[in-house]
Amino acid sequence: MSFIRRKPLVSLLLFLVSLGVYLPSLRNGFVWDDVETIEQSYYIYNASSMGDMFIPPVKEPKDALYYRPLIYASMVLDKALWGVTPFGFHLSNVVLNAFSTVCAYLLSLLLFGVSGYERKYGAAFIAGLLFALYPMHVESVSWVSGRSDVLCALFFFLALIFHILSLRKTGFIPLTTAFFILSLSSKEVAVVFPVTALAFDLINGSGGRKANMLRYVIYASVLALFFYLKGRTYVNFPELSSVRIPDASPVSEILGAVNVALASYMYYFTKLVFPYTFNAFTAKAPGGPAYVISSVVTFGLLALGVFYSVKKRSGVCAFALLWIPVTLLPSVLLALTDIPSASVAERYLYIPSAGFSLLLAWIFVYAPQSGRGRGVLLAAAFILAASYLVFTIGRQRVWRDSVSLWGDTVGKSPKSAIPHINYGLALLGEGKDDEALKELLRNFDESVEINARGRAVTANNIGVVYINKKDVLNAERWFLKAYGYDPGYYKTSYHLGLVFYLKGKSGGSREDYVDALGYLNESLRIKPFYGKAYLLQAIVYGELGERDKARESAGRALECGLTDKLAAKARKIISAPE
């Protein structure tokens, strides 16, 4: 057992275990949001824009959703180190997750030590190992865009470590503050850090110290600064629109919100305890009286557990029990809004799982009274870890590419529109036009839940399939359908511009080119920095013989950003002789 007492060696072991578990992810490609934001739009990750990301310029209307400048900075660094290769971006995710695992272990060791537990080294090792292998982390680690959870957790753990250390030495307060800021800059869930720190202080009897006032004044100031910077361009407090019922009373709306919150909490509690069933897209948490009652009962048991643990002076157990609902709160509140396309997601369990791992470690090491019982529970701990390992490695195969991911997801969420859209696009990307068309048409089945924007996106993508098949007439028909469903979807206007450009190209009609410009202008009105629309606009102006306007639009396209292939076309237009 002497090895377990050597923090550097145990930290290195857990780091290597975490790296080894996620080696399969290094073979994965870009999927889901990665394709749009990294592979196709990697130009946005530019070091020259770093200042505006951390201190956003004031802009109206404030319609952007996420203020996460550190994620942007990490992507800029990845692009500089690796270029636009999936391997490099995935490697960064895997390494960051390994560091996060080490910090979870060190935090656990500190918590057990502060509470005066014997066998703290073994308990902290188990907590770190369970966190390293926890299956629900796959979405955050194997999906490049899931990095926000990993990076936020890394600095969240460090902030809490130095908060605890600052109770002995106030000189650690600046480090606590710095890591809190970095965590907030990675993901909004870090807003609960002061509550988590307060829970620790109260449980350990340090909440009433006057010196703590300085800490919480600083934390409050950091939150105020965060919301100020976020509010310069981004949405600060989204409306709780997903629970609105037409003509309902305020009481009914409140009860609806409580129902959604309790159902969401129960979804996460269930996933924490049984992390073996996966779905990349769950539109909403399962509801109904059974889920609500189960959630209320679970909260009652948590409250009893905290009360009993405090009474028995089991501070780590009480803190772990509080950690879970507190760190889940931002994700539960998010389920009440229309911001996410799916109101619940497995990746939101990344930080809460640290508290669950801590709780399990306490149970396995400290719950048994006899030596024999302790041995049985320790064996159970490593059996549990082995089961985590098997499912974590297996789940990474699903995230290998878009076809694999969305093929798995549509089977689990057949009534959700977005998986069908994404699976159709994945099949289209593989050159399977007919299969893509069949998949997209499923969104018009009565069993699929879909709104006007979803129909517009689906119809637009069907039009893209027909463009790919060089069937311009059917493409136009579907783009017009999409426009009828939702005129505010910018890609439909762009594609109608493309259709009329193709018609003008084949028939030589000036009117078609003029119509193309009209749709492109509408697309740019909706999305002002749409580089592809500016490039097509430049091409149309070229066909009309308006060279100066063509050069101007091509220049704007380059300013907005294009992939290398499209950027070469824009430069060719700019440099074309008179």
Can you summarize this structure?
69% of the residues lie in helices and 0% in strands. The protein has 578 residues and is an all-alpha fold.
Shape: elongated
Largest sheet: none
Alpha-beta content class? mainly alpha
Count, helices: 26
- Low-pLDDT runs of 5+ residues are none
- What is the average of the pLDDT values? 89
How many strand segments?
0
What are its keywords?
single chain, about 575 residues, mainly alpha, 26 helices
Q: Secondary-structure blueprint of this entry?
A:
Elements: H1 7-21, H2 33-39, H3 50-54, H4 69-82, H5 86-114, H6 120-133, H7 138-142, H8 147-166, H9 173-184, H10 193-203, H11 211-231, H12 250-273, H13 289-311, H14 315-334, H15 352-366, H16 371-396, H17 402-412, H18 417-429, H19 433-441, H20 452-468, H21 472-485, H22 490-507, H23 510-526, H24 531-543, H25 547-560, H26 564-575
Helix pairs in contact: 1-5, 1-6, 4-5, 5-6, 5-8, 6-15, 6-16, 8-9, 8-10, 9-11, 10-14, 12-13, 12-14, 13-14, 14-15, 15-16, 17-18, 18-19, 18-20, 19-20, 20-21, 20-22, 21-22, 22-23, 22-24, 23-24, 24-25, 24-26, 25-26
Question: In words, what does this structure look like?
Answer:
- The mean pLDDT is 89.
- The protein has 26 helices and no strands.
- The longest helix is centred in the N-terminal third of the chain and has 29 residues, at 86-114.
- The chain has 578 residues and is mostly helical.
- Helix 8 (147-166) runs antiparallel to helix 9 and helix 21 (472-485) runs antiparallel to helix 22.
